[in-house]
Amino acid sequence: MASLAGTKSGDTKATWKSYFSGGAVGPFLGLVALCIFLSFTSETFLTLRNFLNVMDQITVIGVMALGMTLVILLGGIDLSVGSVLALSGMVLGYLGNNLGWPFAVGIVVALVVSALCGAVSGLMITKLNMPAFIATLAMMSIARGIASIITDGQQIVGFPDWFSNLAIIRHFGLLSATVSVMIVLTIIFYVFLKYRPAGRALYAVGGNPEVARLAGIHVERATLLVYTTCALLSGLAGVILSARLDSAQPSSGIGYELDTIAAVVIGGASLAGGVGGIGGTVVGVLIIGFLRNGLNLLHVSPFVQQVIIGVVIALAVAADTFRARRR
Amino acid sequence: MSEQSIQSDTILSVRGITKKYGSVTVLSDVDLDVRHGEVLALLGENGAGKSTISSIIAGLVQPTTGTMTWMGEPHAPQSPADALSAGIGLIHQEMRLLPALSVAENVFVGRLPIRMGRVDRSGINRRAAEQLRRLGLDIAPTTLVRDLKVAAQQQVEIAKALTLNARLLIFDEPTAALGGEETLRLFERIEQLKAEGVSFIYISHRLDEIARIADRVAVLRDGQLVATHETAQLPVKTLVEEMVGRPLDRMFPDLDEAIGETLLEVEDITSASGAFKNVSFSVRQGEVLGIAGIVGAGRTELVRAIAGADPIAAGVVKIAGKPIRLSHPSDALDQGIVLVPEDRKAQGLILPQTIAENIAQTNYDQIAPKGWINPKAVDRFARVAIERFGVKGRAEQRVNELSGGNQQKVVIAKCISRNPRVVILDEPTRGIDVGARAAIYEVIAGLARQGMAVVVVSSDLDEVLGLAHRVMVLSRGINRGILDREKADRVAVMELATT
Q: Which of A6, A115, B29, B486 makes a 20 to 30 Å CA pair with A162?
């Protein structure tokens, strides 16, 4: 009887925690506290309009963070996401505006080019045994370079209305197409990581690649696919950003890799791999999004904002370490 | 009178040491004496407190209560450095060396002598070379540690302790990673240092070693000292019973003689790395084949190749008469071949994950046949496996909280839940205490009884001889012969293993 009761309480705990698998309960509480604080200090914070604004602002990072979650789960890192984002936007703008291709085709080509960047990084990591940090650092430079070569560093401005409207028109007064894409992708990745064997396999690979290999998991293939997926999502983020800004420039997305990694890590993922999840990443992205938004509403200077976000990253990870130590 | 002489002979005396972690008592009121120039063997099951008492003596852990006297002075080290400077060195089961640094740098790490503002390299190289010579070790002090074999790395650890003029060395499972030859050499070193007046506390699970090397034996059980013997020449049965606290009928289960059709056939396989050459053997359903040999004989490499983990350069592996492809572990799994790997922490388990997740990982084809995982099904599957293999733990418990024996059962549970046809176990009881070993042996015999073809690789000769219907002996990558159970004894196996 006693053991039965014990099991039951264990189960409930597991279910509650499993929504934010990867120890994101702490960050989630932090997010709640942040929202409560901001709704008292700013009049505009707790309005639907402001919330929708934040959603628009986090779309780019939110989409990239999904791919970065997979990469970090594997125990890897992808520094090239910001550059791939820029490359994707430039390919799209060049094909659509300079060459006059149909815009839809341009989007597809931009995504394919982005995915190729990820595949190349993945091959460098799996076939040449390069550390992910170095391989993606190389790709960061390569993709940024190509993005600049396309127009010799010039920006491309003015896209078709239907395309820009994807990021502007809020259907039913709520969600733009781009925000919807982010939400749908988030759900897909959440389900994939939690309920598909291939998703669980990533936790095994990140936890211990040798154990995973002996368990029959194709570690190299998984690694290759994850970097490809991450780059594909970065490319998609590039398309989304182009729609939002109605322009593409080779210098966009600089520093986004850091924001993206920060979001994933704030969400409780471990850079050592094997720990983390979409639930946590969503929390991380929202914390960064609400924090930026709230600080803007409170008229805090962008320089001070940078400091505060740095402090939040350090605090989130330190809190996680403390909890791990207490266990 | 004799009391007096023992007193003066004693260099370390431990009195009433108790250690509590929260409400858990891991050591209670332990008294222990170590005499000048002796080897005191410390025996006990995993969790008996052997490592805790040695950590306390070596300053890694501080006792809750109790006192120690070291060479007549009170001894209460607050750190390993304190203990080391007092002359007590602990040599870990797993080496704690810096692989990218030289032997000499490792020996003097943390106390590199400075001359004219710079590290005195020629000085440390000279002094390290002296100690290496003293240990009969023919390696240059400038060699990088990562280029040394495990046995040599251990010698470097010893050299490190000796440069600190250690008077007491504590060895925690020193032979776990050593082969027979290397063990012998280690014992020679111990004898030599003993003659120079160095004392030893020697922790090992291998009772035959204890009989060979120890002068006295102390047995711990559940954190208490249950016996001390003035000699190490004791019946194994006595020691085992003291360790487990209950009489043991027999260590090995009976083997079923009902053996079926030939299932696994290995024909002339050669490793791509050259670790083994032209090895052939076969295993029938319900049969246990033991693979014996000294470390480095190519046993692990052989079974890893059969499990698809390492490439094969030539030869054929057949299951039920059909040749199979082995380019990835998943190929072997698809054919019903599972490997319970040698190093459960590095190859068998994902330590921070739960028992359920570890067990589920290899079995999603059963748990989620349609590709959708129901967390409840994972839990149910894990509970069944936990029950079947007698794992002491809950499905949602992390595996790094389990004892070695229970971790090994989780590895076995995860592999066997696939209902494989061929089960290969590499060193299934390494680092596992005696009581838990018997349970593992029972599981292995049970697998054979269920009609699986079982291969057991072990450095523990008794284990191979006690468990297997037939024993194949490898030496330097070559199959030196397969002995039937009746003909297989220690002498016959060792003769083949050392050719």
A: A115
